[in-house]
Write a structure and sequence with these properties.
The complex is a heterodimer of chains A (246) and B (258). Chain A is an alpha/beta fold and 246 residues long. Chain A contains eight helices and ten strands. Chain A has a domain at 1-72 and 181-246: Rossmann fold (3-Layer(aba) Sandwich), CATH 3.40.50. In chain A, 35% of the residues lie in helices and 23% in strands. In chain A, strands 6-7-8-3-9-10 form a six-stranded mixed sheet, with helices on both faces. In chain A, helix 4 crosses helix 5 (136-149) and helix 5 runs parallel beside helix 6. Chain B is mainly alpha-helical. Chain B has a single domain (38-251), classed as Orthogonal Bundle (MetI-like fold). In chain B, 79% of the residues lie in helices and 0% in strands. Chain B has eleven helices and no strands. Chain B has helices at residues 2-5, 9-28, 40-53, 60-91, 93-106, 111-122, 126-150, 154-162, 167-201, 210-219, 223-251. In chain B, helix 4 (60-91) runs parallel beside helix 7 (126-150) and helix 9 runs parallel beside helix 10 (210-219). Chain B is globular, with a radius of gyration of 22 Å. The relative contact order of chain B is 0.12. Classes of the chains: A alpha/beta (246), B mainly alpha (258). Chain A binds chain B through residues 53-55, 72-75, 77-79, 81, 83, 85, 87-89, 98-99, 102-103, 130-132, 146-147, 149-150, and chain B through 153, 155-156, 158-166, 169, 173-174, 177, 180, 252-254, 257-258.
Chain lengths: 246, 258
């Protein structure tokens, strides 16, 4: 598989902290896969995403996107935040087209791409509504569409579905999987929910408390599993992951 | 939630009516001399007379307009200067370090303390009055802008950066609109501050303005004229604040909803 992102010997220590949050971490993300990252609270999952996205500069080591170092945030690395970070002063269409406008795309191109994305996230009828009038699930769909509008090479989700109720979360999982299938993008999903990590990830990166092997990547035979298919084998697989996290 | 926001207009109107009745009773029963508390009828008739014949040879509307022009030009000037400076100070530590201590130093000083100096520096005309009101209005807007910038959701900025926005675009398309609700709060406070300073501004070396009219009337114990001036200032103050609230609701329609 062709690597799209390489994390090489990444160490990150926050200013004033005694210990590093990430310590000599190595990780490859393949083009076109969905990698989910699971780990217990405070293990550095979000720090890892923030470093890959370019928001944080590594203390040592590097992050490469297509063999080029990531030196700061850029449109090729889309991010969907947990609280969606949509702009309440813009309507749904303007939120989705925000990145394209910033990049000086012409109006017709923006309208056409926004319209396609609205159809893909099934929100065409909400185009002119303000985001504060939408439900949590709808807002998260807008946030996904906004991140996709720039046609980034990787879309990262920072515990983006954690605040949603179970029904809405399942709905969003299906939207994410449908988009992944149709757009052939690379998704990198941070989550604290093991079932979510198993359902969404082609591969699962487990952040362990073991300083020697801070991250362990496993293949996932249960990718896109239907809840009706959950059996004893699945539970054993899930428990094995859980044991490695704690 | 709806119950908390509900305003009992009936109670508000009834309270004002009770105050009016008390005022009427106190003056009808001559509990206090008219020179200290003129009757409502006297105040109304004085208002009618002032509207017809003016005060000191100058029409009442002119006094009012002059006061409003002084007030609004000072507030406008404060908005034009304090908003950009406050936004930049909230974002850039060097600028903040340069200006904040100066503004914090000036902010608590009562305007009258430096008014005479202002007159000596910029002259006895309109400039000193507008500058005094401007200084009163500047700090609330400046401080509100800093607070607005510092409160901007970090994820708003991060997401704009990831969507390809340049630092300049982040400032104008994310930070500025995010800070708008605070800017409006600052403007409303500034109008209030300038408004409370307007009488002081018209106290010295003025020959017109509602504030001057009140001060001048006080010298001749014309309490009915003072009452008219005070009531005009009170009603105008409430009206200005309501107008700002309406504008705020239109422009920062998302405030409190996100």
């Amino acid at each position: 598989m062709e690597k799209i992102i390489e994390v090489k010997n990444l160490t990150l220590t926050y200013p004033g902290a005694d210990e590093s949050t990430l310590d000599a971490l190595n990780l490859d993300i393949n083009r076109g896969e969905i990698m989910t990252v699971i780990g217990k609270s405070g293990c550095g999952k979000s720090t890892l995403l923030n470093t890959i996205a370019g928001y944080l500069q590594p203390t040592s080591g590097e992050v490469l996107l297509n063999d080029e170092p990531v030196t700061g945030p850029n449109w090729k690395l889309g991010v969907v935040f947990q609280n969606n970070a949509l702009y309440p002063w813009l309507n749904v269409a303007d939120n989705i087209g925000f990145g394209l406008k910033m990049r000086h795309f012409d109006k017709l191109k923006i309208e056409s791409r926004v319209s396609t994305l609205l159809d893909q996230v099934q929100l065409a009828d909400k185009k002119n509504e303000y985001v504060f009038s939408l439900s949590g699930g709808m807002r998260q769909r807008v946030a996904i569409a906004r991140a996709l509008a720039n046609q980034p090479q990787v879309v990262m989700f920072d515990e983006s579905f954690g605040a949603l109720d179970e029904f809405t979360r399942n709905d969003i999982h299906n939207v994410v999987l449908d988009l992944w299938k149709s757009l052939h993008l690379t998704f990198f999903i941070i989550t604290h929910d093991i079932d979510e990590a198993i359902k969404l990830g082609n591969r699962i990166a487990i952040m362990t408390p073991d300083k020697g092997i801070p991250i362990k990547v496993i293949d996932n035979p249960y990718f896109n599993i239907d809840s009706a298919e959950i059996d004893a084998e699945y539970m054993k697989y899930k428990n094995d992951i859980l044991k490695q996290i704690i | 939630m709806k119950t908390r926001k509900k305003h009992y207009w009936g109670i508000t109107v009834a309270t004002w009516l009770v105050l009016l009745v008390i005022w009427q009773l106190v003056t009808s029963l001559k509990i206090t001399p008219e020179i200290l508390l003129p009757s409502p009828e006297k105040v109304i008739s004085t208002f009618v007379n002032l509207s017809k014949y003016g005060y000191n040879g100058i029409p009442l509307w002119y006094h009012f307009m002059i006061t409003m022009i002084r007030l609004l030009s000072a507030v406008l000037l404060a908005i034009i200067t304090a908003v950009p400076l406050g936004l930049i100070s909230g974002r850039i530590k060097i600028i903040y370090s340069m200006f904040d201590s100066i503004i914090q130093f000036i902010r608590p000083i009562p305007p009258l303390a430096y008014y005479t100096l202002l007159i000596l520096w910029v002259g006895i005309g309109e400039t000193s009055k507008v500058v005094l009101l401007y200084l009163a209005a500047f700090a609330p807007i400046y401080l509100a802008c800093i607070s607005g910038v510092q409160k901007v959701n970090d994820d708003y900025i991060k997401s704009a950066e990831s969507l390809g926005a340049t630092p300049r675009q982040v400032f104008f398309h994310v930070i500025f609109p995010s800070a708008l609700p605070d800017i409006f709060t600052g403007i409303r406070t500034a109008v209030g501050m300038a408004y409370t300073t307007v009488v002081a501004a018209e106290m010295v070396a003025a020959t017109y303005g509602i504030g001057w009219m009140i001060i001048n009337a006080s010298k001749y114990l014309k309490s009915d004229v003072m009452f008219v001036g005070i009531i005009i200032l009170g009603i105008t103050g409430v009206a200005l604040d309501q107008l700002l609230k309406v504008i705020e609701k239109k422009i920062v329609f998302w405030s409190g909803k996100s």
